[in-house]
Inverse folding.
């Protein structure tokens, strides 16, 4: 996802009107960092209502352009992402988020559905741990 026009196209393609506030949100999304809280998006788009921010985030999640990540402290952040299904690994120290796309993982989740007899409609998976940079920094510190 690289441009506000792509985000605007996704909004329009969802059957919703491309209002002025939604245009502002599309532009503001591109100014935010790798992952951001809804409050940060609200601040980046002055004059846009809180409800509009959350409705637009939900709409973009449904279209696959924004994904939601639950941090290990329970905070919810969002990030522009691919519309391919994926999971996340989250650093519990610095908050870095990396995407995981694993066919082996998807097969295991499919096997769980078969074993339990559930027809799984959706799932989300976040793994938590320390990223390579935080692990390296911890081992480099003198004791």
């Amino acid at each position: 996802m690289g441009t506000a026009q792509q985000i605007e196209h996704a909004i329009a393609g969802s059957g919703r009107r491309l209002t002025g506030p939604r245009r502002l949100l599309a532009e503001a999304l591109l100014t935010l960092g790798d992952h951001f809280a809804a409050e940060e998006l609200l601040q980046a788009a002055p004059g846009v209502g809180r409800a509009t921010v959350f409705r637009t985030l939900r709409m973009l999640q449904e279209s696959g352009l924004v994904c939601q990540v639950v941090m290990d402290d329970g905070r919810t952040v969002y990030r522009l992402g691919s519309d391919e299904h994926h999971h996340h690994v989250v650093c519990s120290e610095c908050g870095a988020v990396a995407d995981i796309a694993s066919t082996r993982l998807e097969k295991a989740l499919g096997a769980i559905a078969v074993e339990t007899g559930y027809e799984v409609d959706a799932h989300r998976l976040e793994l938590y741990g320390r990223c390579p940079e935080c692990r390296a920094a911890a081992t480099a510190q003198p004791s």
User: Anything to note?
Assistant: Residues 50-63 form the longest helix (14 residues). Residues 87 and 100 are 5 Å apart (CA to CA). The two ends are 44 Å apart (CA to CA).
